[in-house]
């Protein structure tokens, strides 16, 4: 704790120096982050494989290049992001300079998670650096090998006076949260998210919580069989199902289920072969604790596809469960593994009612070739993100915000949204010291004439509303 206190003091002194506010420093650190990713790609691939048996394709696309693209996007746009944002003025302020200035918070804490240990630590870091903050990074101790490598590499590439990395488990994390930060960004479970929020409340520290939840997927009668099966299987079983935006359960009629489940089984065979255990493209569960948790969830409903497991290898086959009820264990928590429960509903309206009586999810998916079905699902539900006729891919576009709502999260990031998340929006008005006659109407003694002048000068006039229908 003494070492951390000294580090925090060093970071605060560095921030006060003003160096992080310069565009040159920010872009220099972002360039260094690109170098870290490019010059150590093979090392990063090796540790991701050790932790999750993550194959090269998934590691490059969803970890290394994902983070690199976020850096490149920031470098391409940061010059415009840091410019003051001019605002509309009224008659009284017509001669003044009125604008919003984006300023760094100060020293911020970013707590990463293990499922995507590079992406979910470095992507918010891009926003924090772009906004001009000093940063404390806390990688997840669960993804041991990746976290150790990042803790070694980051001080070699980024300025140690402005970015620090602290390792350790839950105890060390709680010790960090005792200190005052100017902003906290956390990715992980809702249970720990509550703890982070409580700790932040002691210092009135703003927080961003990227949590999870049970992401529903409604498959309509008008669905395209082949594409739906392929896209669902890919999204659910990517990274062995350990993805926060993966479809967590399927809602459909019995008629749709009879067609869909065999099609998913065929997709699994196409993707991973007859025995996915032998596929170089299928990952493993992160640790024994999560393996045992998933083993219990396999007891829900009836296994229609997969179901095999091997404890020593932490392998659980791509699995589809049917005859699942809302009260089953697999419906009480986020699955976060290669298990896809299917529940039967009688109609779109019943699916919407089912979704709306549960906690708001991080993502919501609908498969239908009927645009009206997609529109009704979009307009009558709430979720952090929404995608029709696919899943997970909305994450690939950093011009869309990423974040949850309610129990699935608080706040958004990605691209410009990350910059805004780590920036204080400072309201600025620069007035002239002269032209005092313009202010006489606001000074006592008051009278009706002065009141009418100020009403005329400050009232906002109502304009017609032009609405666009999607």
Write the layout of secondary structure elements.
Layout: H1 2-16, H2 23-39, H3 41-52, H4 56-81, E1 85-86, E2 97-104, E3 107-111, H5 119-130, E4 134-138, H6 144-157, E5 163-165, H7 170-177, E6 183-187, H8 190-202, E7 207-210, E8 216-219, H9 225-237, E9 249-252, H10 254-272, H11 288-297, E10 302-305, E11 309-310, E12 315-316, E13 319-322, E14 339-344, H12 348-356, E15 363-367, H13 371-379, E16 385-388, E17 409-410, H14 416-421, E18 423-430, H15 448-458
Parallel strand pairs: 3-4, 3-6, 4-5, 6-7, 8-9, 8-15, 9-14, 13-14, 15-16
Antiparallel strand pairs: 1-2, 2-18, 7-17, 10-13, 11-12
Strand content: 15-25%
CATH C-level class of the largest domain is: Alpha Beta
Return residue spans where pLDDT drops below 50 for at least 5 consecutive residues: none
The CATH superfamily label of the largest domain reads Aldehyde Dehydrogenase, Chain A, domain 1
Structural class of the helix and strand makeup? alpha/beta
Number of helices: 15
Q: Helical proportion?
A: 40-55%
N-end to C-end Cα span:
54 Å
The CATH architecture category of the largest domain equals 3-Layer(aba) Sandwich
CATH topology heading of the largest domain: Aldehyde Dehydrogenase, Chain A, domain 1
- Number of structurally distinct domains: 2
Q: Gyration radius, to the nearest Å?
A: 26 Å
Largest β sheet strand count, sense and barrel closure: 7 strands, mixed
Number of strands: 18
